[in-house]
Amino acid sequence: MDARLNIFASPLAGKALKHFTSAGKALADSALPAATQELVKIRASQINGCGFCLDMHTKEAAAAGETALRLAMVAAWREATVFTDAERAALELTEQGTRIADAAGGVTDEAWANAAKHYDEEQLVALISLIALINAYNRLNVMVQQPAGDYQVGQFG
Question: What's the pTM value of the predicted model, to 2 decimals?
Answer without folding.
Answer: 0.95
